[in-house]
Amino acid sequence: MIDQKELRELEAKCIQECPPTCTAACPVHVDVKAMLVEIGRGDFTAALKIYRKAVPFPRIISRLCDQPCKDVCKRGEVGDEIAIRDLERACVEFGDTSSEKPRPLPKRKGHVAIVGGGISGITAAYEAARKGYAVTIFETGSVLGGSLWQIDKDFLPAWVIERDLEVMTTLGIEIRLNTPISGDIRELRREYEAVYLAVGAQIEEKFDLERDEHGFIKVDPVTFETSAAGIFAGGGMRWGKEMHSSITSISEGRRAAISIDRHLQHVSLTASRDNEGSYTSCLYTNLEGIEPLPVITESDGWRYNQDEAAQEAKRCLQCECMECVKVCEYLKHYERYPRRYVREIYNNLSIVKGTRYANTFINSCSLCGLCGEICPEDLDMGEVNLRARREMVKQKRMPASAFDFALRDMAFSNSDHFAFSRNRPGTDTSDYVLFPGCQLCASSPQHVESAYEYLNARLVDSHVGLMLGCCGAPAHWAGEEALFNQTIDRWRSDLYAMGDPMVILPCSSCYQVFKTTLPDVKIVSLWEVYEQYGLPEYAQPVSRTVAIHDPCSARRERPVQDSVRRIAEQLGCTIEELPLSREKTVCCSYGGHMWLANPQVAEKTIRRRVDEHPADYLTYCAMCRDFFSNQGKRTLHLLDLIYGEPTDDRAARHSPGWSQRHENRARLKRKLLTTIWGETMNGSQTYEAIRLIVSDEVRARLEQRLILTEDIQRVIEYAERTKRRLQNPESGRFLAYFKPTTVTYWVEYQPQTDGYVIFNAYSHRMEVPGSGES
Amino acid sequence: MTDVEIPSTSPWMCGNCNLPLEVASVDVGYMGNAFPVKLWKCPQCGLVFIPEDLALGKMVDVEKQLEDK
């Protein structure tokens, strides 16, 4: 089970919600992205509202700000940085300021003294007054604003300062001008519950407080508290004359006001105060493919008009990460990103009573690992989803229908219909064993025969055995750990009995299963064997261009990927690389049972992949090949290149249906057992002899509904034996239902001399009376 | 499940008992839950008729709801 701590660690790995670099660098964290969206729309009032949330004196600061945001603006790496301050100025110019009256909180107990009416002092006063405290400002001079009045009047006219400072009166702040404060500040503190010192860099007064090594008043960098409790200090007096930053003064005034509030409320001054000032954002933004754009210049050489401001704002990249979402149709489909997803998964697993809305989400992931490969912080949603599935199985909360079809397919593969392990006839141990897996045998059984023949001919001094079956990956993907371990144990003990041969694997999923769960078993991909021992004479180079699609389970297998490419070249291929290949390859939707849990997402996934390149695709996974070709994409399996007849257009072939896949596996076993080992297979079930007559249209419907030939045979066998069936008196057709295990199948049929014509079939999992013994 | 609409006539009769089906309350169950549903049923042997649209529509919805509970 994922606990709270781990959840937070996973959430923290997803950086999508980290503020953009500009906002993080801004000492008051102006929400630049949102503000620029509004400006881009021409809504300067909405933009101004966003700006004012962070900046209490917008007219002044939009002229003065020293723009720490600009240095870190990502747009600067592809063109010029965004002119953020000029856009802020445009907000003030064009936004409606009539609704800008601040709304203070209800009055609260506590009187705050602010010493110094400069920008930092008035910010602290403004913030404290808004929080409901009585505030008195002590200013030596005859006006508020301090050093603001020394700035060139063309740049900062008096009316701008006056207009912005009107808010001080509106908030009912008491302003005592011409009132210098000096000496032991504790005197003043006796009259006020809190004091903020912000006398600027010009005044040398130290108020009898402790100093640091540079002679400045010693101040806690987070709380701005001095050596005396309840007395705070900030702004220019803290940094001296060398540095001047109005936005930092504002930031410190505001942060001191937070401390003052906490001091007056008798709560911790230090708790949860990360990232209050300027900091470096953890957000990653990919700049690849972004066209560099120069800054928009003011046509009057002075300031933006509305159109220019909107144009400039539209240059903003609206920085975000979304790297994984960009490459994954599944993550995209649910319209959020991993930080949100892991929270939803956690909630889903924690529900005791109620609906688990994230079940389908969890079960739709292909577990392919691409997101983890792409993520700047290596967050792999596949790992999270797999753990969630295991947990659901453990809690007995996994929907019964979720992976049932795939698990039954696996059960078929590991039943006597298909599975067997044999040493070569006349030997009692093997040096090598071919383990072709389930779906290659289902899709291209003849290639498996050829490959086995090749191995025996080429590895002439070695004994090559054969193991048919399913490696267990479907159980692994379904979160069925017990079934998976049981399957793996079987292969382990079969291999042991065969003398621990090296396992030769064409399928990358089998390869991963063996590699990760049976590390003591020696494995090699069939492709590496072909490369090492040479292709069969039969294989003739044909000149063609192919785009290689690496299976997702071969993502981290560089040597395998390389072998495949070299073999393809030997076979006459000119290779094109897809935009996402090798370690960044994409799943075909078979992985993790995505195709079964969410056909809609699966279709989007396949569509996107097959549209990436016009060339025929070449892959080395049977399911990738079949899923792509079923979507109309010409796709070859590497074995098609090696063993396909030159006249046979293997790239265009549709995949066999699910029933045929069973049939192909069963036939392969029967054929190999007979021809190589001289054995016959034990008797088959009665129903298997029932001959079905099915039109293409009905067959397609059965395929889509995942109803297999054997399911239909069982219904008919049951109905004909028990006579429990409905009949349409007009057409004479029968309708019968039967539940062999967990699903009830309905079949509409008519007997004929040479078999049964099937008109329709459907199924459900709910149980109804009369569905027969199972 | 109780609000299921079934066709007013059934094209099927019981092929076993040779009797027309009748509308009756039938218990349909899933994951330990049972719901009485009005369905066409053989009055003698109890064989029922689940129409295709019921199996592929309402039944799937209810199965999913119960599985996600």
Greatest chain-chain contact: A-B, 32 and 32 residues
Provide the gyration radius of chain A in Å.
37 Å
Strand content of chain A: 5-15%
Largest sheet of chain A: 5 strands, parallel
Mean pLDDT of chain B comes to 90
Oligomer: heterodimer
Shape of chain B: elongated
Q: Return the average pLDDT of chain A rounded to an integer.
A: 94
Relative helix content of chain A = 40-55%
Into which percentage range does the β-strand content of chain B fall? Answer: 25-35%
Total strand segments of chain B: 4
Number of strands of chain A: 19
* Cα radius of gyration of chain B in angstroms: 13 Å
Number of domains of chain A: 5
Give the helices and strands of chain B as they follow along the chain: EEEEHH
Low-pLDDT segments, ≥5 res of chain A: none
Helicity of chain B, as a percent range: 10-25%
What is the CA–CA distance across the termini of chain A?
Answer: 35 Å
Task: Chart the SSEs and their pairings.
The complex is a heterodimer of chains A (774) and B (69).
Chain A: H1 4-13, H2 21-25, H3 32-41, H4 44-54, H5 58-64, H6 68-72, H7 84-94, E1 111-115, H8 119-130, E2 134-138, H9 158-170, E3 174-176, H10 186-191, E4 194-197, E5 231-233, H11 236-239, H12 246-264, H13 306-314, H14 323-327, H15 329-333, H16 338-350, H17 359-364, H18 370-374, H19 381-394, H20 404-413, E6 420-422, E7 432-434, H21 439-443, H22 445-458, E8 464-468, H23 473-477, H24 481-497, E9 502-505, H25 508-517, E10 523-525, H26 526-533, E11 544-549, H27 558-570, E12 573-577, H28 594-597, H29 599-610, E13 616-619, H30 622-630, E14 635-637, H31 638-643, H32 658-675, E15 692-694, H33 696-704, H34 709-722, E16 726-727, E17 734-738, E18 744-752, E19 755-764
Parallel strand pairs in A: 1-2, 1-4, 2-3, 4-5, 7-8, 7-9, 9-10, 11-12, 11-13, 13-14, 15-19
Antiparallel strand pairs in A: 6-8, 16-17, 17-18, 18-19
Helix pairs in contact in A: 1-16, 3-4, 3-13, 4-7, 5-7, 7-13, 8-12, 16-19, 26-27
Chain B: E1 13-14, E2 22-30, E3 33-41, E4 48-49, H1 52-56, H2 58-68
Antiparallel strand pairs in B: 2-3, 3-4
